[in-house]
Protein: RNA 2',3'-cyclic phosphodiesterase
Organism: Halopseudomonas sabulinigri
Amino acid sequence: MQAEALAALAVPGGGLRWQSTAQLHLTLRFLGELSAAQTNGVQQALAALRWDGLRLQINGVGYFGSPTRPSILWAGLADTAALQRLRDRLDARLATELAPDPQRFVPHVTLARCGSGAGSPAEFLARHRQLQLPAWEVTELCLFTSEVGDNGSRYQVLARYRAELPDGDTDDTCDQSTQT
């Protein structure tokens, strides 16, 4: 499974707070704090979203922040065109509920949050530059709530939204591979 392979990249120390397998996910759209009415509107918009499922693959690593002071180490994705189209369709559905997302969509899985002692990501990037994991099928989007704690964020599924799959193709798991 991708989560175990990604968690295995963790190297203790060095000012990095590595994500646990339960914390690993791909965020399709960060929503922030929502009122009950907004949450209801988001749930209705997601329920109306029609999509065919996606095939995604982890490919390479990168970071956010500066080369001398990164903020996040992440794993990237190969060929994100279908994911971008799904994000665009989701944004269109959410336009009546939420303001546009001011952040550019950069599909990634956060591996570690970098503290002040993290230093340059050059060694990590060089070591895992060729990272490529087997592709997997995404058949479900999950709406999560998160609660920040001493050990990072803890996620809880509020609702699940299935892709429109061909007859007989089912997968009842929501492994946080894609969240809204």
Notes: Strands lie at 16-18, 54-56, 58-65, 70-77, 108-114, 136-138, 140-149, 152-162. The chain has a mean pLDDT of 89. Residues 50 and 132 are 29 Å apart (CA to CA). The domain at 2-162 is CATH 3.90.1140.10 (Cyclic Phosphodiesterase; Chain: A,).
